[in-house]
Design goal:
The protein is an alpha/beta fold. The chain is built from 20 helices and 14 strands. It is globular, with a radius of gyration of 26 Å. The structure holds iron/sulfur cluster.
Length: 481
């Protein structure tokens, strides 16, 4: 049987579909994927409230029961059903919401996204095809998705929160492709070879597919957008694209050169000195940990707004003395006001605020600024003084082979400070951003000693994120001596 999730998986990546069928135990769903799935489920349930007198076809692993229940409900002249289920040949789908109006039907698919994506159209085309083959007269096909401009103000206003858009014309070209695609799916007997694509980073088979790639695989090449097309041409390694792609960037060329040769670290001293000299003491090394929710939890919060539940601040004064402050707010509370207080009380009126990848911290600060006018001037002054440590690497001022073309702090830190190479690994419970997000969210369900331990783990992780920036900064200063 081919379900709509099988169909979507195949459309995204043939290999993913094959693995789902034959090696599903290899899939590792990380906290971030799980969180998105849970929020999607929540949105699906919420969207049902848009329909009056909705009847749900109860889930049953024995699909015939769902199909039989659907047929019974369809005997009514007018009905609105959730999970109406159909089988045509070996193709099975459950429609999120199906409205019957005499002999006509409207399909509604619900997504937790804030825009219409091509994958959704393919998914809905599969359902449309099955329903058509079953002889149903489809009047309209609609997508229900989330209005990204929605701001919570009192109880959730579903009519404002959701956008319902008719997409019948948009899916028709994809409907035509369904028979041919399912034929190919039925014939797939061997695992397709690995082909990097835009879905890999969110795929449960990522570790399986990527673990044995050679160290000079173009999948490791910095910001290289032609991975899939070059793989299809057989150019899978650095040396292949060096020969066949004349449009590699300076950073990509340098990464390849360092990979194949033993070179001393590259340090553009004059530029690095100029860059660091612009920073003013005291230096405030700042990092946030955030949670975002599709359905805003608090008044004044936007859809998917990053709420800062945690911050770490290392302060280096002009005699290089180091101090540390932090804050951790439990996720059942609205953290914004407390975070405004923390930032405006702990960050003085002078000195640079050093972050790693400024767009993230700036977006958090700017949301706070917009939503808490009483802190606007102070937060604006903080925002104006943000400098980005990542620019040192992104702008090519420093590079060494150990960075391997990645400028994430988890890669740069051990590359520049090898004595700290196990620092993240040695932490307890929380070792990366995804684990931090899951740990933060889990605080709601913990109490007593377990709660305290989790909080300590989160604090240690966030503290290391800013301490690593301090260490990198000191290393850069040493390079200038
Ligand atoms: S990791 Fe990428 S190539 Fe592997 S199955 Fe997933 S999407 Fe396909």
């Amino acid at each position: 049987m081919i379900s709509k999730s099988n169909y979507v998986a195949y459309k995204q990546c043939h290999r993913q579909y094959y693995l789902d069928q034959h090696k599903a135990n290899l899939s590792k769903v990380n906290g971030s994927i799980l969180r998105r799935m849970e929020q999607g489920k929540e949105i699906g349930e919420l969207a049902r409230s848009l329909f009056k007198n909705l009847v749900e076809v109860e889930y049953d692993s024995y699909k015939d029961t769902m199909i039989g229940d659907t047929l019974d409900l369809m005997k009514k002249e007018k009905i609105c059903m959730a999970e109406a289920s159909f089988l045509y040949d070996d193709l099975f789908c459950s429609v999120d919401i199906l409205v019957k109006d005499n002999d006509q039907y409207d399909i509604y698919e619900v997504k937790s996204s804030t825009s219409i994506k091509k994958d959704y159209l393919k998914d809905i085309a599969f359902q449309y095809y099955i329903l058509k083959q079953k002889g149903l007269k489809i009047r309209k096909t609609n997508l229900i998705y989330v209005n990204k401009t929605y701001v919570k103000d009192g109880p959730l206003d579903l009519d404002q929160f959701f956008i319902i858009e008719e997409i019948t014309d948009k899916i028709l070209p994809y409907v035509k492709k369904v028979p041919e695609t399912v034929d190919r799916m039925r014939q797939l007997e061997e695992m397709p070879t690995f082909l990097p694509n835009s879905h890999c980073s969110e795929c449960g088979y990522y570790d399986y597919c990527y673990k044995d790639l050679p160290s000079d695989s173009i999948t490791h090449l910095y910001y290289y957008r032609k991975k899939k097309s070059q793989f299809l041409l057989g150019n899978k390694r650095f040396k292949d694209v060096l020969e066949h792609d004349s449009h590699l960037s300076e950073l990509q060329l340098r990464q390849i050169d360092f990979h194949y040769h033993d070179r001393d670290a590259l340090i553009k001293k004059t530029l690095l000195k100029r860059f660091l000299n612009e920073w003013e003491y005291p230096l405030y090394f700042l990092d946030f940990e955030t949670l975002d929710y599709v359905i805003p939890k608090f008044n004044g919060v936007k859809v998917n707004q990053r709420l800062p539940y945690q911050a770490s601040l290392h302060i280096v004064d002009n005699i290089d003395a180091l101090s540390h402050k932090d804050i951790l707010i439990e996720p059942s509370n609205d953290p914004r006001q407390e975070m405004c207080q923390f930032l405006t009380e702990e960050i003085g009126s002078h000195g640079s605020i050093v972050v790693y990848n400024a767009s993230f911290e700036k977006s958090v600060i700017r949301d706070l600024m917009d939503q808490f006018p009483e802190y606007k001037d102070q937060l604006q002054a903080i925002d104006d003084r943000v400098v980005d440590l990542l620019d040192v690497f992104r702008n090519g001022l420093v590079y060494n082979k150990a960075m391997g073309g990645s400028f994430s702090i988890k890669q740069v830190y051990p590359a520049l400070c090898p004595d700290k190479k196990n620092a993240y690994h040695d932490l307890e419970q929380v070792h990366n951003g995804i684990e931090a997000m899951s740990a933060l969210e889990s605080l709601n369900d913990l109490s007593g000693r377990a709660l305290e331990k989790k909080k300590q783990a989160l604090k240690a992780y966030c503290k290391l994120d800013t301490l690593s920036m301090v260490d990198i900064y000191n290393r850069l200063k040493d390079m200038l001596k």
